[in-house]
Amino acid sequence: MDTPPVCGVTPSTSAHCALPWPSNVFLTEDADARNRLHVDLGADSLPANNQGVHIAPEPYKRMDGYGLSAPAIALFPNVDDSNFATEYTVEKSMEADAQILLFDDQRRDRARSLLCRP
User: Hey, CA dihedral for 76, 45, 40, 65, is it positive or negative?
Assistant: First the structure.
């Protein structure tokens, strides 16, 4: 059985709708766009403020994809992150026993990674 979409277009949890980011899930065919695509987020896909008002998705529709420097962001619930590299210990991500291995496919080498806690 397929997971029904929530938060507009995202097949994710309602608490973190726009994850993983970036994702082709949010790209829609667009004959008028230079690359024939544009980013299409649902009305409640982006975070909301403390009054429940979500960030408006309309400005993103002008985008035809994601920037080259867009960080890869994902949610992994129920994971023990006590030994992950953080913004203060990025060097841990390059150790031989690092718990997350991120690779740069252009350089064919390991890349630094870190965990940002909410």
Answer: negative
Whether the CB-CB separation of 13 and 5 falls below 8 Å is answered with no
- First-to-last C-alpha distance (Å) of the chain: 31
> Among 52, 41, 51, 37, which Cα is nearest to 17's?
41
Highest mean pLDDT among 8-12, 24-28, 75-79: 24-28
107, two tokens = 């350089």
40 bridge partner residues: none
Burial pattern 28-61, b for ≥16 Cβ within 10 A else e, equals eeeeebeeebbbbbbebbbeeeeeeebeebeebe
pLDDT digits (tens, 9 = 90+) for 1-20: 344 344 454 444 444 567 77
102-104 and 37-39 beta bridge pairing: unpaired
